[in-house]
Amino acid sequence: MTPKTTLPSQNSNERLPVAGLLALAMTGFICIMTETLPAGLLPEIDAGLHISPALAGQMVTAYAVGSLSAAIPLTLATQRWRRRKVLLLAIIGFVVFNSITAFSAHYGATLLARYGAGAAAGLAWALLAGYARRMVTRAQQGRALAIAMVGTPIALSLGVPAGTWLGAAVGWRLAFWIMSGLTILLIAWVLAKVPDFPGAAHHERLPFRHVLDMPGVRSVLGVVMAWMLAHNVLYTYIVPFVTPAGLAGQADRILLLFGVAALVGIWLTSRTVDHALRLSVLLSLAIFVVVAGAFVIGSASPAVIMIGVTIWGLTFGGAATLLQTALADAAGDGADVALSMNVVAWNSAIAGGGLLGGALLDICGAASLPWAVTGLAAAGFLIAWQARSHGFPPGHRLEHGSGS
C-alpha cells in the first residue's frame, strides 16, 4: 500500500538546520582530507619513516581497504545504537588514528592506524546521508543532503592542496596533528548542533540481503559503479591525460577549476534533486558522455580540456547528492544499510578506476582514457534510464513511497 502524499508547499521553505548540516559536511571534509593527505606528502613520509615511496603510498591503500571492509559490518553492528553516539564514535576514530599516524615511528603501526581511520570513514559515510535526511522534513531532504555533502568537493579542490602545502611547510606529522585538532573541534560542534536520534528497534533491524533485494537498490548501486568508475578512470590520471595538450604543469589549476565547478554543481542539484531527480541524473550522465566524446576528439586542444573539465565538474558535483537520495528513497527504513553498500561501491569504483585507468595508460596510452569514460558513462545512463519504476522514478520524489 502506498501512502497518499501531498507535495510540499511552504514546508520546503522552512528554515534548514544549517549549523548541524555543516557539521556533517565537516565530517565529510575530514574523511576526504584524512584519505588523501598522504598522497601529497609521499616524499616527506618516506623520508620520515625511512621507507620507499611505493611503501608510503600504501598508506592510501590501507585507508581504502579499511573503508571497504568495515562499512557494512560496522553499520549492521550499530543499527540499534543511538545515531549521534555512532557518529561520534566514527569522528573519535579519526582523532585516535590520525594521532597514532602523527606519532608513530613504525611503518606497521602506521598502516594499522591508516586502516583504522579508513574503517572510521566507512562508518561515517554510511551515516551522513541518512543523518541529514532525519534532521529535516521530507520536503527538505534533497537540499539538506546537498549541504551535508559540500565538504567533499571543498576538500578535493581546496583542502588537499592546502594540506599538501602545510605538510611540506611544517612537516607531515604536524599536518596529521592539525587534522586531529580540527576533529576535536568537530566533536564539540556535533555535540552542540547535531540532534540525536534513536537507533533501529530490534524488530526494525533489516538484514543485508533484504535491503539489497529491495526494488531499485541494485539499479542505483549499478549507476554508482558505472558513473564513479568513469569519473575515476579520468580523474586519477588527469596529469597524463592533459599532457598532450601541454597542460601537465597546470594540473593543479585544472583540478581547482574542476572543484569550483563541482561546488556550483552541488548548488544546482540542491534546486533540482527533489522535483527532478531522475532528469538530473540522466542529464548529468548524458552531458558527461558528450564531454568524454569531446575529449576523444579534442584531447590535444587546451580549450577543449579546460571547457570540458568545467562542464565535467558541473555534472559531477551533484552526483553524491543525487545517488544517495535515490538510494535512500529506494531503501526506505533500510537507508543506513543501503548507504553502507554505497560506501563499498563508491570506494570499489575509486580502486577500480585506478586499476583500469592504469592498465589502459600502460597498454594503449592516455588517448584511450576518454574512450573508456564514454563507454562507462553511457552504461550508467542506460541503467538509470531503465530504472524508471524503481530507483530513478520520474516526477517529484515525494510522490513515490514514504521515504525514510
What report would you give on this structure?
- There is one protein chain.
- This protein is mainly alpha-helical.
- It has two domains: 16-204, MFS general substrate transporter like domains (Growth Hormone, Chain: A, Up-down Bundle); 208-397, MFS general substrate transporter like domains (Growth Hormone, Chain: A), CATH 1.20.1250.20.
- It is built from 17 helices and no strands.
- Helix 1 (18-36) packs antiparallel against helix 8.
- The protein is globular.
- It is a multi-pass membrane protein.
- Residues 20-392 form the Major facilitator superfamily (MFS) profile domain.
- Keywords: Cell membrane, Membrane, Transmembrane, Transmembrane helix.
- This is MFS transporter.
Keyword list:
single chain, 404 residues, mainly alpha, Growth Hormone, Chain: A, 2 domains, 75% helix, disordered N terminus, MFS transporter, membrane
Structure at a glance:
This protein is mostly helical and 404 residues long. The protein contains 17 helices and no strands. The chain is globular and about 50 Å long.
Q: In total, how many domains does the architecture comprise?
A: 2
Note the total helix count: 17
* Residue runs with pLDDT of under 50 for 5 or more positions: 1-10
H/E element order: HHHHHHHHHHHHHHHHH
Q: From the alpha-carbon coordinates, what is the Rg to the nearest angstrom?
A: 21 Å
Distance between the termini: 16 Å
* CATH 2nd-level architecture of the largest domain: Up-down Bundle
Helical residues, percent:
over 70%
Major beta sheet summary:
none
Label the structural class: mainly alpha
